[in-house]
């Protein structure tokens, strides 16, 4: 089982940037599909971004709402996944959670059910 701990959340003005980190322990995540999801108050959890295992060319996927503004990446030496968030909008306000799945998927990894391991989440608040 892999343990995940997110950090980097906070309060930022609209148009600003934040970088979230997801530090993994217990397993080496280079062979994992990693994802970021978010949940705003009163709303369902939604997919933000995912990155496939290194051996799968590390393909990346994004929700349409964040495409061009957010970038997911991984540092295998640090066993950490990042989410760089630029041009933040008030509607990006949510708790952001990191998720992990051993191995790859033969389809776009965007469903919560595809990821068995989750971190506790980090709050991102974007003020207008």
Summarize the structure.
This protein is an all-beta fold and 128 residues long. Helices cover 0% and strands 49% of the residues.
What does this entry look like structurally?
The chain is globular, with a radius of gyration of 14 Å. With 128 residues, it is an all-beta fold. A hairpin with an 8-residue loop joins strand 5 (46-51) and strand 6 (60-62). The protein has no helices and eleven strands.
Task: Give the topology, please.
Blueprint: E1 3-7, E2 10-13, E3 18-25, E4 32-39, E5 46-51, E6 60-62, E7 70-75, E8 80-85, E9 94-102, E10 117-118, E11 122-127
Parallel strand pairs: 2-11
Antiparallel strand pairs: 1-3, 3-8, 4-5, 4-9, 5-6, 7-8, 9-10, 9-11
Mean pLDDT: 95
Uncertain segments are: none
Secondary-structure class: mainly beta
Helical residues, percent: under 10%
Strand percentage lies at: over 45%
The number of helices is 0
Measured between the Cα atoms of the first and last residue, the distance is: 40 Å
Output the helix-strand order.
Answer: EEEEEEEEEEE
Q: Using DSSP, what is the number of strands? A: 11
The shape, in one word, is globular
Radius of gyration using CA atoms only: 14 Å
Describe the oligomeric state of these chains in a short phrase: single chain
